[in-house]
Each structure stands twice: as C-alpha cells, then as structure tokens.
C-alpha cells in the first residue's frame, strides 16, 4: 500500500504549482507557466545550463508570425538578455497592437516536442495562458528530488488531454426553486481535483424515457451579473423555466467558463473584443482553439444519474454529436433562441458563422 500521490494527484499538484509560478518537471523539461514567471525563477532556469524555450500554440504563433515547425505548437528560443516582460508580452496578446515588433522569432526545429505539448496542455488545464517556458535537463528525477518539484511523466501528462476524468456524486439535496418546488441539486466531484460540476434535477424524470436536458457551461458574467454580451443567462433561466413547466428535466451546470478557458482568459478575450476582434479571433490570439470545452463530462454525469436518452436543449450541433459519440441518445433538439440584445448581436452572428450554432 502506498501513501504517496499517484498519476492523477501529481497532475493536480502540477496544475496548482503552475498557477503559483512554481516550476514542475514534465518528462525531461523543467517548466514554468509564462504568465506566472518571476525574474528570480527566470534566472534560476537560465542557470540550469540549457537554453530556455518559450512554447506557444500554433494559434498564438500565427498572430506573432512565428514558425510553428511542430505543427500545433512553436518552440521559440529565448533571446539573450530579455526578461519576464518579454516572455509575458509574447504569451499575452493584451499589448499586441501597442508592441507589434516583438520578433523576429527564432523557432526550434527538430528534436522532441511532445514534452512541450504536454506542458502546454497542463497550463491549459490550469486555466492559464497556453504558453510555458521550458529548459531541458539531463537528470530530471534528481533535480525534482533535490528541489522538491512535482514530477510528471509524459504518460501522466497525456492524461490531461485524454479521456475525461472519473466523476463521483458527492451529495444531493432537495432545493425548492422558483421554477419548481421539486428541485434537487447534485454535486459531482472529478477525481483529478478540478472544478466540481452540478446537476439540477427538476421533478423525478423517469430514467426509461428521454429527459428534457441542457448542458449549460458556467458563465459568471451572464448567469450572475446579467451581462448583455452573451445569451447565457437567458438560456439558463429559460431552460429551467421550461423544465419547471413540464414538471421534469435535468440541467447540467458545467464549470467550463469561457468555453473552457476560465474566467481570467475570458476577460482577456473580452478586452481583445473591445479592440475589434470577434470572439473566435480573440481566442486564437490568446492561443486557444475556438472552443476548449469537454462535453464528455456532461455525458458522464447523465450516465451516472441513470439517463441514456435526452431531448437536448441546445443551439450547438457539436453538443449533439458529442452526446451521441458518448452513448447518449439525442431523440430531439429543443431550440433555445433567447437573450438576443444589441450588445451581443455580433457575438451571436459569429457563433453561427464560425462555430455552426443554429441561431
């Protein structure tokens, strides 16, 4: 019997360390997240002997006109004499229009890029900008032990990009709601220590019939603040109201803010939208894909609750495809066209044009 952490726990530790600016060891690399890098840590990385490399996604490289020789990422050689301001400016597009001459960039070519790919995936899963500073070392195990750094193998790091983590229901309790006094909240906790997800069950829907369901991604600004930049809050309230009217349904509230990039990065994207970029362009400039959410989580929760078929309230065909791919039958798409405002007209148009939403 072992007391120490296993693969899942080490991944959770690695995410926490990256958020705090603490280096982690990924395969042969010592890695620090670009946005939490400090001058002292940069100096310590340089002292390791190898030349530091700033790994960014191909999306971010496209904006910077850097060469992504590794396909989905670019490994930029850190110029001599630059500091954390340069690293952060390359990683964060906030000042792209004010500082357009960060390059030219020299991209590493050849060698193994998989450790850098794994490190970027870890940064994404920690809701950080997808950019990491990395130095290859000859004895990573020895260094990790001497410095007390979290050590993650490449196989373990691959788990951050593979099948969704296991979920377990922690508790459920009756919660009378405005839309239905027969409300019940279920709390599901992922095994990897990431954010909990919730299921709001209205009534007692039979498990043998398709249930009226919605997969709703958390939106702090829309759901709680009533933001007019999106239609999320209106969709949430309308979905619950319809379930209450029918007397049965289940709304999954998935903590995947900002299409899976986290609230801080979502606010970065909003700032870019104020500069004139649309929602997809903003995500790309940050280094993310159009949509980083993992709807497998929703399918796993539905199965855990005993549902195998749904009438899905959505305007997003990708949700339907993912549900079916994960063994959840979608017998009907229930449109949810609400919350249109002058402030979100362009946002909704871009979702239809670039993301295939049925608006």
From TrEMBL:
| Sites where the protein binds Zn(2+) | 219, 230, 232
Keyword Mitochondrion included in the entry's annotation? no
Gene Ontology cellular-component terms listed: cytosol
For this UniProt record, the keywords arranged alphabetically read as follows: GTP-binding, Hydrolase, Metal-binding, Nucleotide-binding, Riboflavin biosynthesis, Zinc
Q: Which residues form the GTP cyclohydrolase II domain?
A: 171-335
Q: Which cofactor does it need?
A: Zn(2+)
Its pathway, per UniProt, is: Cofactor biosynthesis; riboflavin biosynthesis; 5-amino-6-(D-ribitylamino)uracil from GTP: step 1/4
InterPro entries attached to this UniProt entry? GTP_cyclohydro_II, RibA, RibA-like_sf
A biological process term (GO) from this entry: riboflavin biosynthetic process
Which region is the signal sequence? none
Q: Which domain of life is it from?
A: Bacteria
Q: Write out the GO MF terms.
A: GTP binding; GTP cyclohydrolase II activity; zinc ion binding
Entry annotated with the keyword Ribonucleoprotein? no
Which PANTHER family would you find in this protein's record?
3,4-DIHYDROXY-2-BUTANONE 4-PHOSPHATE SYNTHASE, GTP CYCLOHYDROLASE II-RELATED
Q: Which family does it belong to?
A: Belongs to the GTP cyclohydrolase II family.
What role is this protein assigned? Catalyzes the conversion of GTP to 2,5-diamino-6-ribosylamino-4(3H)-pyrimidinone 5'-phosphate (DARP), formate and pyrophosphate.
What protein name is recorded for this chain?
GTP cyclohydrolase-2
Give the organism, scientific name: Rhodovulum kholense
* Gene assigned in the entry: ribA
């Amino acid at each position: 019997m072992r007391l120490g952490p296993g693969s899942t726990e080490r991944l959770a530790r690695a995410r926490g360390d990256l958020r705090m600016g603490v280096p982690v060891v990924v395969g042969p690399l010592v890695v620090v997240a670009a946005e939490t890098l400090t001058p002292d840590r940069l100096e310590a990385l340089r002292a390791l002997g190898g030349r530091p490399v700033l790994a960014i996604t191909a999306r971010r490289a496209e904006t910077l006109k850097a060469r992504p020789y590794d396909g989905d990422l670019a490994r930029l050689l850190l110029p001599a004499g630059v500091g954390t301001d340069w690293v952060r400016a390359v990683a964060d597009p906030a000042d792209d229009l004010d500082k357009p001459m960060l390059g030219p960039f020299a991209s590493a070519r050849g060698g193994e890029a998989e450790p850098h790919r794994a490190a970027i995936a870890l940064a994404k899963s920690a809701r950080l900008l997808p950019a990491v500073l990395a130095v290859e070392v000859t004895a990573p195990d020895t260094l990790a032990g001497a410095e007390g750094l979290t050590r993650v193998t490449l196989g373990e790091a691959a788990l951050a990009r593979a099948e969704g983590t296991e979920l377990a229901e922690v508790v459920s309790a009756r919660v009378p709601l405005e839309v239905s006094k027969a409300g019940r909240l279920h709390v599901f906790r992922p095994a990897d220590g990431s954010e909990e997800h919730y299921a709001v069950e209205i009534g007692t829907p039979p498990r043998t019939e398709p249930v009226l369901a919605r997969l709703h991604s958390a939106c702090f600004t829309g759901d709680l603040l009533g933001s007019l930049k999106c239609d999320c809050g209106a969709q949430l309230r309308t979905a619950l109201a319809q379930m209450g009217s029918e007397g049965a349904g289940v709304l999954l509230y998935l903590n995947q803010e900002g299409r899976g990039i986290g609230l801080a990065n979502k606010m970065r994207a909003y700032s870019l939208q104020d500069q004139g970029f649309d929602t997809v362009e903003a995500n790309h400039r940050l280094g993310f894909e159009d949509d980083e959410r993992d709807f497998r989580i929703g399918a796993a929760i539905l199965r855990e609750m005993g549902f195998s078929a749904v009438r899905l309230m959505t305007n997003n065909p990708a949700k339907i495809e993912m549900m079916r791919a994960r063994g959840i039958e979608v017998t009907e798409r229930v449109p949810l066209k609400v919350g249109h405002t002058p402030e979100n007209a362009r946002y909704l148009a871009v979702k239809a044009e670039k993301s295939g939403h049925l608006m």
